[in-house]
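Morning!

This is the sequence you dropped in the shared folder:
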Amino acid sequence: MKLLPYLFLAIVIITVMVAGCTSPQPVPQPVVTTTPATPIATTPVTPAVPVQLIRDWIVTTFGVQDGTAVTYPTTQISLTFNPDGTLYGNGGCNNYNGPFTLTGQTLAKGSGITVGPLVTTQKVCPVYSAQENTYLQILRNAVAYVVDGNQLTITDRTGNVLIYKT
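The structure's back. C-alpha cells below.
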C-alpha cells in the first residue's frame, strides 16, 4: 500500500514534465493588408520654354561688377537650352550641364530664370580657369534673361551680365 502514493506522485510528476516540454500551438495572427497611398505627382507649373531660347549661344561679352566692367572671352564659351528644361555647354575649358527653370516672373532685367545645380568636367586649364569660374558663377546665379533677335542677355542677382549671340 505504501507503493500506491509513490506511484500516484510519479504519474503526476511525469504528466507535469510532459506538459511542460510541449509547446503550445501558435495562435494564427490575423493578416492585415493595407493599400499604400497613391502618390500624387505635383509638377511645378512652369512656362513652356520659348522657341527663341532653344538655340546654341556663344558668349560675346561679360559685364561684371554690376555690368560696369566689360570683358571679352579669350576662348569660345557656349550655352544650349533644351525644351526639357536642361542646358549644356562649354565654359571655355570644361563641359557643363544642368537644369534650368523659367519662373514666369517679369523682372526689371527680363524674364525670370534659375539655373543649376550645374555639373562640370574637371579638366585643368590654367589659362582659362579664372574666366570659366566667373562665367559659371554668373550663370549659376542667373535671375533674368532677355532674348532680342539673335542676342541673349542673362543677368545674375548682383547685376553681372552675360551676353550671347547665336
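Headline: The domain at 56-165 is CATH 2.40.128.270 (Lipocalin).

More detail when I'm at my desk.
O.
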